[in-house]
Write a structure and sequence with these properties.
This protein is of the alpha/beta class and 362 residues long. It has helices at 40-48, 55-72, 76-87, 94-107, 112-152, 177-184, 201-213, 225-230, 256-265, 286-289, 298-301, 351-357, and strands spanning 2-3, 6-7, 11-13, 20-23, 34-37, 156-160, 189-194, 217-220, 236-239, 243-245, 250-253, 270-273, 279-280, 302-306, 312-316, 329-332, 339-342, 345-347.
């Protein structure tokens, strides 16, 4: 992604070769601020407080968190502490555990003196692999958009929920990668961007990056999508996922399930973009088995925005004394998913579909 002509990833190694730099996504869309992570605790805070978010980027940040931990202590006990600290930050996104397991698999067999260099090498590789996977799934997904355009000859209207773009990954994005690839290939697209309450990742993050890239888009209230589908204003839905089961259920930002129901009722294709580390091969039933994160009620009762003077302020939107509950995710059953877009191609949301693309997991 380019910002004012400068290419950025969402996470990168600082010039000193030790620290790690990230974009503070809590400041977007109004401010572009970068933060330097210097320790394990910095990385854990960045994930827990959502300076970084999105399943692939959480995994990449956790990998670098393990590397940062080796600066202070690379012993077996220290690695376990780092693993446990990072693993406890966010319970739903499986990429977090995947990345931590990848790091431990590399580091544990090595002598302590070799672990620091190996940790930074593997973390960098995880970032490169994520970027490549998302670029590939973008190409596969763009073919779906191109085919709709070929049939209709019109602008393809795509609805997405939350942020599954460049800001949710190391680069390119998951659900938004096909849109970028199609747009860059000259296919006319327009994106309906759900605001995605309560943190407004659609309005603040997806809209921000589409704006940077020049992709036509319109921000809508979360409950507008069904109306648009009823009136033929949505050609397909593409969303991301924080965890996908081996049966094809997808766990994504709260509200995704309702979009899938509306899409099913109106015969609108509903696709999910995901790199393979987002697949949890140990879970079959998403509704019963995936832990759903509950976040602070304050995220729901308060909101950030820019006032007319240009100052970013936080205001309360609920009455004093009203309770709030803030589930971060919901699960969309595989029966509502038209297809899964991965770096290896597109498959049906089913055990057979996933095994056909990933036979080594069969």
């Amino acid at each position: 992604m380019k910002i004012n002509g400068t290419p950025y990833r969402t996470i990168w190694l600082a010039k000193d070769g030790d620290c790690v730099e990230i974009i503070d996504q809590t400041k977007l869309p109004h401010e572009f601020v970068t933060i330097t992570l210097r320790s394990l605790n910095d990385a854990a805070l960045a994930i827990g407080d959502m300076w970084v978010r999105g399943a692939p980027l959480i995994g990449a940040t956790a990998a670098y968190g393990m590397a940062l931990a080796t600066l202070a202590d690379a012993s077996d006990a220290a690695l376990k502490t780092a693993y446990d600290t990072l693993h406890a930050t966010r319970p739903t996104a499986i990429n977090l555990k995947w990345a931590l397991d990848e790091m431990m698999a590399v580091l544990s067999p090595l002598p302590v003196a070799q672990r620091r260099a190996a940790a930074y090498s593997r973390a960098a590789a995880i970032c490169d692999e994520d970027s490549a996977a998302n670029a590939a799934l973008g190409e596969h997904g763009a073919k779906i958009i191109a085919e709709i355009h070929r049939k209709t000859g019109k602008t393809v209207n795509i609805l997405t929920h939350c942020n599954a773009g460049w800001l949710a990954t190391v680069d390119w994005g998951t659900a938004i990668a096909p849109i970028y690839k199609a747009f860059d290939a000259g296919i006319p697209v327009h994106v309906w961007v759900d605001e995605t309450r309560p943190r407004n990742q659609g309005a603040s993050l997806t809209a921000r990056e589409l704006n940077w890239h020049g992709v036509p888009h319109t921000v809508i209230a979360d409950n507008t999508g069904g109306h648009l589908m009823q009136h033929g204003m949505v050609d397909l839905c593409i969303v991301g996922t924080d965890r996908t089961t081996r049966n094809g259920d997808v766990c994504n930002k709260i509200g995704t399930y309702l979009k899938a129901l509306a899409a099913k009722d109106n015969n609108v294709p509903f696709y999910v973009g995901l790199p393979s580390p987002t697949i949890d091969w140990n879970v079959a039933d998403g509704v019963k088995e995936i832990p759903i994160e509950q976040r602070s009620a304050r995220e729901q009762s308060h909101i950030f925005g820019k006032d007319e003077s240009g100052k970013v302020v936080e205001v309360q939107v609920t009455p004093d004394g009203s309770a709030c509950i803030n589930y971060g995710f919901d699960v969309t059953p595989a029966r509502l998913v038209t297809g899964l877009i991965t770096e290896r191609g597109v498959c049906e949301a089913s055990p057979a579909g996933l095994k056909a693309l990933f036979p080594e997991r069969a």
